[in-house]
Amino acid sequence: MLYSQLSACLQAHAPRSKRFILALSGGLDSRVLLHLMGRFIRQYPHYQCLAVHVHHGLSANADAWVQHCRQWAQEEGIECHIESVTLTLGNRISVEQQARDLRYLALARHVQPDDVLLTAQHADDQLETFLLALKRGSGPAGLASMPVHTAFAAGYHLRPLLHASRQEIMGYGTEHQLSWVEDESNQDQRYDRNFLRHQITPRLLERWPGMRKAVVRSAALCGEQEALLRELLAAQLANALHSDHSLIIGELASERIGKQLIRQWLSRFDVRLPSQAQLQQIWHSVVMAQDDANPQLCWHNHQIRRYKQRLYIVNQWPDISDCYQSCEIDQVYSLPQGLGTISLRHSAQGNLRLPRDGEAVSVRFEPEGLEVKPQGRVGKRKLKKLFQEYGIPSWNRRRTPLLFYGEQLAAVAGLFVVEEFAGQDCDLDWQYDVS
């Protein structure tokens, strides 16, 4: 029964895919999925399957789990790859959430175009996810919980066991005499999901045995409603999106429509959605702020900022204003925080002169107090004012590379050359994908 459900699901949702990436924790659910996939690829040998085990290092048994996963995958004729990740304990993100985020990042590295990631969540997991969303006061998007099929990385994410119960999966594992690992953290009821699993859902299902299926059905209906909303607002979102991926405030219409457009905009760029209270704050404190204000709202690792009547998604980067990179001519240097590469290179049609003897070349990011005259301009101006004139948002002004000859600013990457350093000997080449 379970195998026929899986086979039908794979062929219905992955008709173009020939390769599956199986997330293998080694627990009961993924162990059963591994066994099912072994049967599937033996029946349909034109399909491929790769198992990926993510080693979090949180358990004393983690190394042993690696060996078990390798052995079980080998028994099924499936290659197994191990990904090791390191959690930063003690930060503001819960261990549970951080482990999940790092796990999916590791899995995404293996998903090529049209590949399908397989995970082993089932109907009981869906019930727990629904209840957690209910506890948070989520709307239809949150109550939709986990979809059966969705886009993921360069391919797709499929949960082929989502309509099966934990009891059915346990029955399959027992029937086929499978062994699996038991993660001791699953007994720790300090975690909300474990508390629900051990204390709440058994009593709910005892009282209402059909609740598991009812929740799966309700989650699917919420998902359909959310998909319909996206479809109805697609044209408005397209009109509101600027070419630099910012959101044009003047296209947001009413508060009700505008907040939905903001949510869909954030979803498009894989940003974790803000809570209802945070979304309310974005609307009233950022969108509706005075024109001369510099409003922002921070949550998780992102900020929403406003500049020139547009909203921007900004990563919360650490300050790099004290960063110093010495440079040699015709050498390429990597800049911090994904800011690309930079080089000062010889060019017969350049706009910079060569540095003179004793002028050490460096790249810095601290614009405070600098006053210069750009080539072709009249008079000196403070760099802060020049950034404003060139339309550089405030959060990027300490992330724009500044080229120094000695202790003098010679050029601002992508903007201008300082008058006294103009020439035709070389160019400052900053390669940075702003999208």
TrEMBL record:
Main location: cytoplasm
Reaction catalysed by this enzyme: cytidine(34) in tRNA(Ile2) + L-lysine + ATP = lysidine(34) in tRNA(Ile2) + AMP + diphosphate + H(+)
GO MF assignments: ATP binding; tRNA(Ile)-lysidine synthase activity
InterPro entries: Lysidine-tRNA-synth_C, Rossmann-like_a/b/a_fold, TilS/TtcA_N, tRNA_Ile_lys_synt, tRNA_Ile_lys_synt_N, tRNA_Ile_lys_synt_subst-bd
Keyword set, alphabetical order: ATP-binding, Cytoplasm, Ligase, Nucleotide-binding, tRNA processing
Leader sequence segment: none
GO BP term (any one): tRNA modification
Binding site for ATP: S25, G26, G27, L28, D29, S30
The keyword Transmembrane helix is annotated on this UniProt entry: no
EC number, as in UniProt: 6.3.4.19
Subcellular localization: Cytoplasm
Gene3D superfamilies for the chain: 1.20.59.20, HUPs (3.40.50.620)
Keyword Nucleotide-binding: yes
Family: Belongs to the tRNA(Ile)-lysidine synthase family.
Domain writeup: The N-terminal region contains the highly conserved SGGXDS motif, predicted to be a P-loop motif involved in ATP binding.
Designated name of the protein: tRNA(Ile)-lysidine synthase
